[in-house]
Amino acid sequence: DILTNDDFRQERLAQLELLDERRLTALDHLQIYQNASSVLMISDFMSVPL
């Protein structure tokens, strides 16, 4: 049962879209993490007694 070129292209596109979605999700998480860590650093800095 050989896939036609069109079937193959559709399948490939679906895979690529999934990869792209995962990459974007990972980027979102990274940004959230970076924001959280910079907020933590600021609060640590603020709590240092003068």
UniProtKB/TrEMBL annotation:
Protein name, as recorded: Uncharacterized protein
Annotated organism of origin: Taxus chinensis (Chinese yew)
